[in-house]
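Reopening this ticket.

The earlier resolution said the output was attached, but the attachment link was broken on my side. Pasting everything inline this time so it's all in one place.
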Amino acid sequence: MKWNERSEYLGKLRSYKNFFVEPNLEKDSCTDKFLLKQVLNNNDGAEKLVNIKKMFKVQKNGENLPVIVVFQGFAEGYVKDALVGNFDIRKLNDSKLGFCFGSFAKNNNDFNYIFVKDNFQLWYLLGFPLILSALYVHLKSLNAEKVYTVGFSAGGFASILFGHYLRADIAFSYYPQTLAFSAFTNNYRNIMNFKFNLSLLSISDLALIQKISEGFACRTIISYCKESKVDINQVGRLDATDSNLEIHKYPCNSHNLFDHLDSKDEFDRIRHYIDNDLKP
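Inline output:
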């Protein structure tokens, strides 16, 4: 998708903030566009809570290069004291949670990168409209004609979610959750979900998005350990007959697939997919 086409598409998404029910959508509310409009106009108060600038880091290596958007997963230690005592939840904006995929970026400088982390560790659902808008701004500044997303676990959820709505060329997702708050939750996430009703958002369920859209909008490649029960359950929720969905199962049994893979070999595989996609 050339930038002028992607820009026009993403510009329309931004206009969804001016929510109105179109007559044709009112007849059939089960459309991807209608549900996205509802999400973008959900007033959850995140604008006063989330510091969007502290979620992003942009690495520009050149003009008009393909862009890889990288989504960090969870790191429990950074939220374990949240909501304890008089803790100011806004301090999570200053979380020391790092950005992932640094070694790949270091060794592949013929891409531009947008690194994203969810300091609140809520599957990127808190402040979703802010995140989507910021991605639009950064992609526009990078004149992105080719866009790829990648993420691990909760970041894998985000890679599919934003890959779908950004109309990425390929979304790489490693051992993702497909239904937020159904796995890897804790007291902090349960309380935040109760406060902001995040699990009620249509975008919290990737299987629902896939069903309503009649398939993901971009090529989606999922990899996980075939004996990991949590990942079997999560990935198993998706429609494997989707022509845009590729699922790779590895002979291992833990959630973290990279405990069993050589990361360099896997990064080479990602590079191979992208190089093939970039061929004329």
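Reporter confirms the inline version is readable. Confidence is low (pLDDT under 50) at residues 19-23. The first helix runs from residue 3 to 15.
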